[in-house]
Amino acid sequence: MVRMRITFLGGTDEIGASALLVETAGARILVDCGIRLGGRSPLPELDRAAGGLDAIVLTHGHLDHIGALPVLHRSLPHVPVYATPPTIALARVMLGDAAKIMAQEQEREEELPLYSAQTVASLLERMVPASPGVPERIGSDVSVTLFLSGHILGAAAAGIESPEGRILVSGDISWTDQLTVAGMGVPQFRPDTLVLESTYGDRLHADRGRQEEQLAAEISARIAQGGKVLIPAFAVGRAQEVLLILRRAMRLGRIPRFTTWVDGLVRPVCGLYTSFAAFLRPKLRELIEKVNDPFFGDVEEIKPVASPAQRKEILAGPPCAIIASSGMLSGGASVFYARALAGDPAALIAVTGYQDEESPGRQLLAAAEGQTASLTLQGTAFEVKCAVRKYQLSAHADASELVGLAARLKPADTVLVHGGGESRASLARQLSTEPVGRIHLPLAGQTLELEGRRRGQSVRTAPIGAGRPLCDNAGELADKAITLRGHRAAWQVAHLLRLWGEAGLAQEDAQKLLLDSGRFAADPRRPFSLKPLPAAGAPAAAPGTPAADPIDEVLARIGADAGLCRHSADRAQRALTLRFNFPARAHERFAADLDAILGPLGWTWTIHPAPNLEALLARAKKAVEDRGGAALKASAHMDRTEVVVRVAADLDPADAAAAREAFARDTAFALAIEVQPSYCLPKTARRADGRLEINAAFNAIDQAFAGAPHTPYKKSLAHGPDGGAIELAFISPAVAERYRDVLDALGHDTGWPIRAAAAPNQHRIKEIAATLAQEYGIAVRKNPSYFGAQRLLRLPVNDIVAPDKAAELTRRFEDATGFTLDLVKE
Ligand SMILES: [Zn+2]
Ligand SMILES: [Zn+2]
Question: What's the pLDDT tens digit per position in 146-162?
Answer without folding.
Answer: 999 999 999 999 999 99
